[in-house]
Specification:
Elements: H1 6-10, E1 51-59, E2 63-67, H2 71-97, H3 101-105, E3 110-112, E4 117-120, H4 124-135, H5 137-144, H6 150-171, H7 192-203, H8 212-217, E5 229-232, H9 237-254, E6 268-274, E7 285-293, E8 300-307, E9 311-318, E10 327-329, E11 333-339, E12 345-353, E13 356-362, E14 365-368, E15 370-379, E16 385-395, E17 398-401, E18 416-422, H10 430-439, H11 443-452, E19 459-465, E20 470-473, H12 483-491, H13 493-502, E21 506-508, E22 527-530, E23 533-536, H14 566-577, H15 587-594, H16 600-616, E24 621-624, E25 627-629, H17 632-640, H18 652-661, H19 664-667, E26 668-670, E27 682-684, H20 689-703, H21 712-715, E28 716-721, E29 727-733, E30 747-748, E31 784-785, E32 788-790, E33 792-799, E34 802-809, H22 824-831, E35 836-837, H23 842-847, E36 851-858
Parallel strand pairs: 2-8, 12-21, 28-31
Antiparallel strand pairs: 1-2, 1-36, 3-4, 5-16, 6-7, 6-23, 7-32, 7-33, 8-9, 9-10, 10-11, 11-19, 12-13, 12-18, 13-14, 15-16, 16-17, 17-18, 19-20, 20-22, 24-25, 26-27, 28-29, 30-32, 33-34, 34-35
Helix pairs in contact: 2-6, 2-7, 5-7, 6-7, 10-11, 16-17, 18-20
Protein name: Peptidase S45
Family: Belongs to the peptidase S45 family.
Organism: Shewanella litoralis
Length: 861
């Protein structure tokens, strides 16, 4: 499908009306402020007389228990405690959202912080800064700030006050900041608007933020008009050389821009909500297992938050979340999230007015594409601080995007251009939405949070409660199209073909018929109530419970009747066979299921593979014209494998490499059948292709210097980075499986993209023996260096005496190398196949109390 011909293929003048995207309405989210009072009159938003007070008590592993009397003070304590634990990560998030990375770090994102020199001259910071300018989130944060509810503003302003108080205490010598960013000019006081701007940037992660390169490149010209211009200070030979070099590299970078992956970090999770028919005591249980980057702005952080009589909630949150829990529990309900398959934006193909690349046709009228000149500061090293300006192009509903001619699909020429409308743009609901979930005491109240707000920006939600109810909903922010439009999206070949090729929905933008201005309402979101279970492992809503498949929803929520991932199939298998003979989970069985480290692919094919091994014997398997391999030792290692991916699992690394060479489409002979989705496809092909994959895997493993019978713990490890980017002296063996092998508790070597400028030590990749490219598994000569995967792990069971919860933050509470909580939970996970108790009751907190901090601050309005 040629996207440039989508308008013609759809038939501009046909009776099928085409989606419009270009009226004069503001492209910010149009949700109005929630009328006061928002919840109950007893919940106070701002501190009386501006006197903020919070208590932070820390227990084992540095977990903060924060108590306050109002939301502003709760945010105050949260901002202070988060800065204590993860100052550099949070500060970088503010810098990125404010388009200031080039100002402090220069134009390149990949920096060797030991030398100050770029490891890759990628201009990543410059592209990020200008693209966020085009997204206008800072301007929106400033103009929309008064539209946030009192509760949201109280939390954001309290958080900024706590963050700033920590900086003041560092300056006064009363606290110690992380070495990497201590005293750096980019670590500076913030305001509530900065917090709002940061939240706006996070909301765009599953959508427009994946198109930063294409937003940067977008321009109506055919030459190098997209390049920034240096406008000050006065020129010099050093400056001229720097600008020339920067532009040369930007041109090279533009030539390599690729169509964006709408989920580039493969963000994922597992989540279960168990109802009364699936638990031994007839009360609800929740398993939370988000798979997120271990570094950067998407780190989780644990806390326990209390406003006496109003809020008492514990769990994990992304750093920067002011005074609320994203995944957790209170006395009555528990919930978790997974990354949804839903699309949160639409790309529109604009029909340009003849002879004018800055006007497009919409309902027969010409609409403007607006040109604006913006600037950023660039730290140019010897050339000093320079001012770079650039033209950006936007419509009333979102930024223009363009790929270079060599990459064609999204071109800007005389006839057409492309833009993006993101349903999460300037979403002001997230804090109110999670506050309502944090405070819910039953299913009705929890569901009401979703009816009132559209703030769960990119998540599925799984829930269970003390009454034994289980509930699922994907009410992530999805463009709100009518049933008529949804029917066309499902049946129009050109739209279906374009989505299949791009991976996201592309719609012509010349009429208003399919315009959207609001997200899909609660009533039309996929949802399910059960008394046995709901679950999700990043397949779509359809497979929440295969006894009651969810169907007939907008295709923007994800596919129906589609093949399940190996990880989802592993989760469904665990749901059936990890609960013991009675089929009902106990607390211990739920924890065991999470940490079983089983892998679905070897469970599916290993018996047949070993039979083929026996037939092959010691006859070498031909991998290529120049490579062959005797599989005797490899097959012996597979026989010795204990069926799990634990540290002591002999052959575990070979299983990993085999999984990365395995092709389900060709190596399984029984095709997918949606009526048997949990068990198909299956049956290993007998054509020898699996043996070739095994031989290929063995050769890659040996090329890295490991034997085929190496245990997983010999190869897979975590090694924290120090402030100068070097590796710490502690290398921890790391149990856990991988998506490729159908693991449930999964990890990988993936970095977190541009989500942090904090240096991360890394080892050079091992090259695949056939392709000559980096091994798909992330294998290095040191092994698998884990930097992504299970993060905040949690199990919650309701009892007559309240919730019983266990959990673990796999990478530990703090990113500060000087903190005692920098590596403690990581060491625990490395050696203990269990979670730790979550201390929720006052008696448990007192028994493990390690420190108490009383905070106060007088706000002067």
């Amino acid at each position: 499908m040629d996207f440039n011909k989508l308008l013609l293929a759809m038939g501009v003048a046909s009776t099928i009306f085409i989606v419009g995207c270009g009226d004069d309405t503001d492209f910010s989210k149009t949700t109005q402020p929630t009328p006061e009072p928002e919840v109950t009159p007893l919940l106070q938003a701002f501190a009386p007389n501006g006197a903020l007070k919070a208590q932070i008590r820390r227990t084992q592993y540095g977990v903060p228990h924060i108590t306050a009397d109002n939301l502003e003070s709760l945010g105050f304590g949260s901002g202070y405690a988060q800065a204590q634990d993860n100052l550099c990560v949070i500060a970088d998030g503010f810098i990125k959202a404010n388009s200031e990375r080039s100002m402090y770090f220069g134009p390149h994102a990949s920096i060797d912080f030991a030398t100050g020199l770029p490891t890759s001259e990628d201009n990543g910071n410059l592209i990020s800064d200008f693209a966020y300018k085009a997204l206008k989130i800072r301007a929106l944060a400033e103009t929309q700030y008064t539209q946030f509810s009192y509760n949201s503003r109280a939390l954001m302003e309290g958080f900024s006050a706590g963050y700033n108080q920590f900086l003041a205490d560092v300056e006064a010598g009363e606290q110690t900041a992380e070495p990497f960013c201590a005293g750096q000019p980019w670590v500076k006081p913030i305001t509530g608007v900065d917090v709002a701007n940061y939240l706006f940037s996070v909301a765009l992660l599953p959508g427009a933020a994946n198109f930063l390169d294409l937003i940067f490149y977008a321009n109506p010209g055919d030459g190098e008009e997209y390049l920034p211009r240096i406008i000050g200070p006065a020129g010099s030979s050093v400056q001229t050389a720097f600008v020339s070099d920067m532009n040369r590299k930007l041109i090279a970078r533009a030539a390599n821009i690729t169509t964006p992956d709408t989920n580039p970090r493969d963000l994922g999770s597992n989540g279960w909500g168990l109802g009364k028919d699936k638990t031994e005591n007839g009360k609800g249980m929740v398993l939370g297992n988000p798979h997120f980057p271990h570094t950067g702005n998407l780190r989780f952080w644990q806390s326990h938050l209390t406003i006496p009589g109003q809020i008492d909630v514990m769990g994990g949150s992304l750093v920067g979340m002011p005074g609320l829990v994203n995944i957790g529990f209170n006395n009555d309900v528990a919930w978790t999230h997974t990354f949804s398959t839903a699309e949160h934006f639409v790309m529109y193909n604009l029909e340009l007015m003849a002879g004018d690349r800055l006007q497009y046709m919409f309902d027969g009228e010409a609409m403007p594409i607006t040109k604006e000149t913006v600037s950023v500061l660039v730290n140019a090293g010897a050339a000093g601080m320079l001012v770079a300006e650039k033209d950006i192009y936007t419509t009333a509903k979102g930024p223009m995007v363009e790929a270079p001619p060599a990459l064609a699909p999204f071109g800007w020429d005389d006839g057409q251009a492309f833009m993006i409308q993101d349903a999460n743009m300037a979403n002001i609901d997230p804090l109110d939405h999670w506050l309502a979930m944090n405070r819910a005491s039953n299913l009705d109240e929890f569901q009401q949070a979703f009816k009132n707000y559209d703030g769960v920006i990119f998540n599925n939600t799984m829930y269970a409660d003390k009454e034994g109810n289980a509930f699922y909903i994907d009410d992530s922010t999805v463009p709100g199209f009518s049933d008529f439009v949804i029917g066309i999206l499902k049946t129009t070949p050109e739209i279906i073909a374009a989505k299949a090729q791009a991976g996201f929905t592309i719609l012509p933008g010349n009429t208003s018929t399919f315009s959207f201005s609001e997200p899909m309402p609660y009533e039309r979101a996929p949802k399910l109530e059960r008394t046995d279970f709901v679950q999700n492992s990043n397949n779509s809503f359809w497979s929440t419970n295969l006894a009651e498949p969810l169907e007939n929803f907008s295709p923007l929520y994800g596919p129906e009747r589609a093949q399940l991932s190996l990880r989802t199939r592993m989760g469904l298998t665990l749901m059936e066979d990890a609960a013991g003979d009675d089929g009902k989970f106990s607390v211990a069985e739920l924890e065991s299921a999470l940490l079983s480290n089983r892998a679905y692919l070897p469970e599916l094919v290993l018996a047949d593979l070993l039979s083929q091994c026996a037939e092959q014997g010691d006859t070498p398997v031909v991998v290529s014209p120049t490579l062959s391999k005797d599989l005797s030792a490899s097959c012996a290692a597979l026989i010795a494998w204990n069926g799990k991916q634990d540290n002591d699992s002999v052959g575990g690394a070979l299983i990993r490499e085999f999984a990365h060479q395995f092709d389900q489409d060709t190596m399984l002979t029984q095709a997918f059948d949606y009526t048997n989705a949990a068990t198909t496809p299956n049956t290993l092909a007998s054509d020898g292709s699996a043996l070739v994959a095994l031989a290929h895997a063995a050769l890659n493993l040996e090329a890295a210097g490991f034997s085929v019978d190496a245990s997983l713990g010999e190869v897979q490890f975590v090694e924290k980075s120090l402030p100068d980017g070097t590796a710490s002296e502690v290398k921890l063996p790391w149990p856990g499986s991988h998506n490729a092998e159908g693991g449930f508790n999964v990890f990988s070597t993936s970095l977190s993209g541009d989500d942090t400028l904090i240096p991360q030590h890394r080892y050079a990749a091992v090259m695949d023996v056939l392709s000559g490219k980096a091994a798909a598994s992330g294998l290095t000569a040191q092994g698998y260096q884990i930097r992504y995967g299970s993060s905040w792990m949690m199990t919650v069971s309701f009892t007559d005496d309240g919730p019983v919860a266990k959990g673990l933050l796999s990478y530990s509470q703090s990113s500060n190398a000087l903190s005692p909580n920098f590596n403690d939970q990581s060491a625990f996970y490395s050696t203990q196949k269990q979670l730790r108790p979550l201390l929720f009751t006052e008696a448990d907190i007192q028994a493990s109390l390690e420190s108490t901090t009383e905070l106060s601050f007088q706000r002067n309005d």
